[in-house]
Amino acid sequence: MAIISNCTASIIKDAALALKEGHLVAFPTETVYGLGADATNEKAVARIYEVKGRPTDHPLIVHISSMDLLDKWASEIPEYAIKLARAFWPGPMTLVLKRTALAKDFITGSQDTVAIRVPSHTLANQFLKEFESLGGLGIAAPSANRFGKVSPTNSQAVEEELSNFLSENDQILDGGQSQIGIESTIVDCTRHFPIELRSGSITIEMLENVLGMNPSWHDSESNKVRVSGSLESHYSPNAEVILSSFAQPGDGFIALSNFPTPSGAIRLASPKDIDEYGKILYSALRFADYRRIKKVYIIPPSENGLGVAINDRLFKACGKKS
Ligand code: TXA
Ligand code: MG
Hints:
Helices cover 30% and strands 17% of the residues. The chain is an alpha/beta fold. The strands form two sheets. Strands 1, 2, 3, 4, 5, 6, 7, 8, 9, 10 and 11 form an eleven-stranded mixed sheet that branches. A four-stranded parallel sheet has the order 12-15-13-14, covered by helices on one side. Helix 1 (9-20) crosses helix 6. Bound molecules: threonylcarbamoyladenylate and magnesium ion. Magnesium ion binds at residues 142-143, 151, 229. Magnesium ion (MG) is lined by residues 142-143, 151, 229.
């Protein structure tokens, strides 16, 4: 297993062939890197769970290159879901829909729903198209990190997380730094109204603008759905994450660039705006672990736009409920 940079058409073709043969291929998306397997190959998908150390009842997102393959995986698709797909795909949004027979229990965690996403990253899209030209129907891909850990936003981070668990024939495709850096917005579209299951860079306001309505986004029923990112502790580095500014000398510190660094603290990131905050947050947390920093103090951004998703991940990183 090696990181493959400079992904030419022939390299992408080889990677698609490897996937078709049942190997795993980690690849970039605009949100975070995914660990891909042929979504119809039970053995290959089983390896995703092994490599991640993830419980097998946690469902996976199936990635496709365009809406054209949606009907293969999903049925009873409501009109509002089509509206969302037309507005935000390709892009950082995942729709949970009623499954077809193609979406087997090993993908859905035995639920009768399936999560689907069309990513916009150019390399991801080329890879999906190549895989589909070989007869592939979709790539199952969770974030390419060990279960409960911080999602990787570049190929080195994937290697650090998974190299001990991947085999010789698996691959990591390098497509640079993920531009968004925070996992996709997940919308449950299995009822008469949409429910947001995970916040992301497609905000509630953006969803509402497209839907032309003010839906009730919170529903106690949705708590019954297994979303692994909704566990209390998730997206966690080894360091203890504390959401305050009282860093002591030797502690890590992350805040927008207009906040000064507390005396003696180690500045891990100074994003200039909310988009940069999302893009560099996970690398900064990884860097804290690399430096063996024990405590990281973070001033969260305000809860507007992408700030909602960043706050959600920060609360989970420190083991609190958001
Ligand atoms: O941005 C992303 O979504 C990245 C990139 C690689 O696409 N993927 C990602 O996958 O974050 P993962 O597995 O780390 O998180 C997907 C979340 C999990 O919390 C899972 O439980 C939830 O989606 N999920 C998958 N299928 C579901 C379903 N049928 N119903 C409810 N939640 C589902
Ligand atoms: Mg994940």
